[in-house]
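Ticket opened by: R.M.
Priority: normal
Category: complex prediction / small molecule

The reporter submitted a protein together with spermidine and asked that the result be attached to this ticket for the collaborator who will pick it up next week. Submitted input follows.
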Amino acid sequence: MEEINSESKKGEPEYMPSVIPGWFSEISPMWPGEAHSLKVEKILFQEKSEHQNVMVFQSLTYGKVLVLDGVIQLTERDECAYQEMITHLPLGSIPNPKKVLVIGGGDGGVSREVSRYSSIDQIDICEIDKMVVDVSKQFFHQVAVGFEDPRVKLHIGDGVAFLKAVPEGTYDAIIVDSSDPIGPAQGLFEKPFFESVAKALRPGGVVCTQAESIWLHMHIIEDIVANCSQIFKGSVNYAWTTVPTYPSGVIGFMLCSTEGPPVDFKHPVNPIDARCHCKSSRPLKFYSSEMHSAAFCLPSFAKKVIDPKAKQV
Ligand code: SPD
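Result attached by the on-call engineer:
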């Protein structure tokens, strides 16, 4: 096969070879046949924890990147889209949240966002992998700043086991900031986990879980929606947002409430103060009330699958 050359000869169009040393490509059976790539300037950290491979690299265009088992978890440039949406979609939908649990979230970004609410007096985080916390504190200060809030209590352990031990009706909101359902996060996508979540929430409490991509994972989403509509007796909705460095450039969220005071996720009732009462945090970059409502508009192909099982107030 003729070698493809990136150098232009005699004014011919330039072709780039598709496999280039110095690039990170995200390859996984969860998105077969495609891989998003980022140019690597320097690998800053690479180690195997008790649970997974942990890597941090400096990219040319997205700042530092955190990768777990070969899958991008966050980049400095676009983490705002994910962390703000997964947090403010649920917390913007209920008045005066007080107790919040984050499952996963070992980088601290979700707790950074939860910290913006002055009504909250307790933020529990249950992350399985201490190395993720340590690496985030070392390389991602603007994200791990979320651990500095005195209301935060960090538990290192398995989220499934943690939730089973939580007394009934403890939390106003639970946010499940997980990696994909291959590896340590698998249990966080299964029915027994959602049953524990429902039990740990107060009446009219809310959950928001990372719920993959409408372009790639409709089969997973369909299962999650079916399980959730059996378990959660309040509202059950799917929302989504753009995150350029996640597979297919989008990611979704499952938002559910338990039986009790009705929750209308599509119309936020608890607008957050963008200035934030917490001095160490920056102004919002992505979330707004408009983005909140827009996140629930689904393309027709997804609506057809999700809507028959979803529940509105
Ligand atoms: N496909 C990757 C999905 C990762 C979602 N979790 C990211 C953690 C950021 N706090």
